[in-house]
Specification:
This protein has 372 residues and is an alpha/beta fold. Helices cover 46% and strands 18% of the residues. It has 2 domains: 7-193, Rossmann fold; 252-372, Dehydroquinate synthase-like - alpha domain (Dehydroquinate synthase-like, alpha domain, Up-down Bundle). It contains 15 helices and 11 strands.
């Protein structure tokens, strides 16, 4: 895939279809924007974004939004703190005051938190208005913007209040990623590594061979990685749109990862970095259930090469408490997502809490996998 190509994917779901475009300089290409310009024609457009994103990239929205009858920018704070019911309520109030209608449009322009919040707001406003995701982080491009899951956080658990509301389109412009710090690129790349390990061995291999360029934010190198990660997620979502079973495969690393985020109050580690440690812990459970040590070592080595920040001090009992609140928890207990080979994985239930609590202290002291 050259840097001039546009990857096009259609995600079919119970509410219709979402068009997903991946490419460099999408927001400067008429062939990528024509359908969205028509969608906006003579409508009120609400743009949910942050002050920082609009300062960095706001000028790129001109060609896309010029045909809207009116544009109203709705600013939210940076980071996970934006995803609150209070912020959602403030946005709904502003949209009502500005005369929002059932056929008004909404555009999320930012990272995963902006997309989650904006999608949730769009899904609830007047019982649902159409929206487009324009993700500006690698994490959002490879994962959060695709699949229709929207949510806000509660103090007790992340993403615990939300709904499925698919965007009509996702525009993943990899040239927007050049301004990201290495830590943000690493965080997003880990979500692509996650998909490679349990869904697509070729994607994992591509990341291994291009790791330096990817962490440097090379737009051309990022296009095939983002496109492959999107394709893998679309296959899963189409098979299980509402996370009844198979879609839970995308939560590899998130069981402990979300608990780490909650214990740290969403500080010190980015989402992808917490998920990386969640994947490393899952390797210990997986090798006890048949995953080849070489496969576990391969993933551990790749994550080590991503130069993760060290784990801050964590409390085992509090991590266990937060895992007990995981949104994948059912009345029958917690289901773990574990790899079975490179490029394959599945859901495993019946893992005793005692096994997890016995393994956690040693893991927190030294999280890296080492084959015997």
């Amino acid at each position: 895939m050259s840097d001039t190509e546009i990857f096009r994917q259609t995600l079919t779901h119970d509410a219709g279809q979402s068009e997903i475009l991946v490419g460099a300089e999408l927001l400067r290409r008429p062939d990528a924007l024509a359908a969205r310009q028509a969608w906006l024609a003579d409508r009120t457009l609400f743009v949910v974004s942050t002050e920082k994103i609009l300062e960095l990239h706001g000028d790129r929205l001109g060609a896309l939004t010029a045909g809207a009858r009116r544009r109203v920018d709705l600013l939210v704070e940076d980071g996970e703190g934006a995803k609150s019911l209070a912020n959602a309520g403030n946005l709904w109030q502003q949209m009502l005051v500005e005369g929002g209608k059932r056929d008004s449009r909404l555009l999320t322009f930012g990272g995963g938190t902006v997309g989650d919040l904006g999608g949730f707001v769009a899904g609830c406003f007047l019982r649902g208005i159409e929206y487009v995701q324009l993700p500006t982080t690698l994490l959002a491009q490879v994962d959060a913007s695709v699949g229709g899951k929207t949510a806000v956080d509660m103090p007790a658990a992340k993403n615990s209040v939300g709904l499925f509301h698919h965007p009509v389109a996702v525009l993943a412009d990899t040239s927007l990623l050049a301004t990201l710090p290495t830590g943000e690129l690493r965080s997003g790349l880990i979500e692509a590594i996650k998909k490679g390990m349990v869904l697509d061995s070729q994607l994992l291999g591509l990341i291994e061979t291009q790791l330096g360029s990817l962490l440097a934010g090379d737009p051309a190198a990022l296009v095939p990685v983002v496109a492959s990660a999107v394709a893998a997620k679309c296959r899963v979502v189409e098979a299980d749109a509402r996370e009844g079973d198979w879609r839970r495969i995308l939560n590899f690393g998130h069981t402990l990862g979300h608990a780490i985020e909650s214990e740290l109050d969403y500080k010190h580690l980015r989402h992808g970095e917490a998920v990386a440690y969640g994947m490393l812990f899952a390797l210990r459970l997986a090798t006890r259930r048949g995953l080849a040590p070489g496969a576990a070592q391969r993933l551990s080595d790749l994550l080590r090469n991503c130069d993760l920040p060290p784990l801050p001090p964590l409390d085992v009992d509090r991590l266990s408490m937060f895992m007990g609140r995981d949104k994948k928890m059912t009345e029958q207990g917690l289901t773990w997502v574990l790899p079975t080979a490179v490029g394959a994985g599945g859901m495993v239930s019946g893992i005793a809490d005692r096994e997890v609590s016995d393994l956690l202290p040693g893991f927190l002291l030294d999280p890296w996998f080492a084959a015997d």
